[in-house]
Amino acid sequence: MRLRKVVLYDEPTVPEIGILNQKKFLELVFGLKVEIRTNFFEKLQDDDYKKIAGKRIFDLKKPFKEHSPNKNEIEIEKSNKDTSEDGRAFLYDGYELQQIISKSIGEENLDTLHIIFTNKLTATFSEEDMGDDFRYHARALIASNPSIISTTGIVEAPAKPRRYYMELFGCASKARIKEIKDRYKGQFLEYHDNRLEKIVEGYLSQVIFYVETGEAFCEDKNCRLFNAHWQKDLFESQLTNSAFCKNHKNKLEKFL
Ligand SMILES: [Zn+2]
């Protein structure tokens, strides 16, 4: 599909996205017309907030089951609080959430791509393997139209160094936890990290490639389309190298 226009829905609780720069990035690299709108979840119908609260995940090991939200949970949706920083980020089924957004937007224009930035943590249930993997995994990106880019997912989904988890495991003392965190500082993203802006460009690129070519990801670790499962790889593809591989450079020229 040849895209004409992209609508970016901002997440104002995370100014580090740098929404104006993302607009410039899409205009410059992909030659797209870009419109910025306020937060998607800001002015929905009461019924939509109830539906969204019903998509929360409470048990990682069970496939999606509609949740029956209480009043407080619906109020939380209305307030769009940033719950990420105190480690209480709520988890939502990404595909279910995507469907609510899709219905709410309707068919604005078929050649318009809607991308929703949100602090909600999206996850998808993996049934690839009936063994260990039969569970929900946090995702930074739900690529479709509309697409969701979860800023909390960018911080939480790509894993931190294995040794970091090992050291934290079973550690009860607050001072010791802080010491470990300080020692690893910089090796992975934290909330409100300034590096987020550059990294978001990579996720946006994956969305555009997905819609234009049907493929969001690349096997090349140095390509911006690399699907990073580790924070280290995320830094390498988006910050150190920060470019497309030869193959994707060519593909980009073709659909420009
Ligand atoms: Zn590539």
Structural write-up:
The chain has 256 residues and is of the alpha/beta class. It has one domain (5-255): 3-Layer(aba) Sandwich (Collagenase (Catalytic Domain)). It is 41% helix and 14% strand. The chain contains ten helices and eight strands. The strands form two sheets. It has a five-stranded mixed β-sheet. The chain is globular, with a radius of gyration of 18 Å. The N and C termini lie close together (12 Å). Zinc ion (ZN) binds at residues 218, 220, 223, 225, 244-245, 247-248.
Please sum up the structure shown.
With 256 residues, the protein is α/β, with parallel strands linked by helices. The protein has helices spanning 19-30, 46-53, 71-79, 94-105, 151-156, 162-168, 174-184, 196-213, 231-241, 246-255; strands at residues 5-9, 33-37, 91-93, 112-118, 121-126, 135-139, 141-142, 147-150. It has a single domain, classed as Collagenase (Catalytic Domain), CATH 3.40.390.
Name the features.
256 residues; alpha/beta; Collagenase (Catalytic Domain); five-stranded mixed β-sheet; three-stranded mixed β-sheet; 10 helices; binds zinc ion
- Please summarize the sheet with the most strands: 5 strands, mixed
Q: Cα distance, first to last residue?
A: 12 Å
Q: Assign an overall shape.
A: globular
The CATH superfamily bears the name: Collagenase (Catalytic Domain)
The portion of residues forming beta strands comes to 5-15%
